[in-house]
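Quick start: read one record
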Amino acid sequence: RDVYKRQVRTSAPGLFARIVHAERVGSEELRFRLDSLVVRTPLDVTVARFRDILPVEADLARQALRVVELDLRFRNQVIARQP
């Protein structure tokens, strides 16, 4: 976990600064709270994969859509959940 934390801090400092809380959920999932957004990932999430939320957030903002959760647990997809 510390290695991953260092990798995010080093290669995505803006994203790292937004992480308010991180926790392991069950045996196969991590859950991050970024500002008012929850991001769900598999345990083996890479920094590159975590960054996949950025264009999705930008697209949702352009459309003025509010999202409460982004889910990265599915291969090559970012699932956005609205309230």
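The beta strands are 19-25, 29-34, 37-42, 69-71, 79-81.
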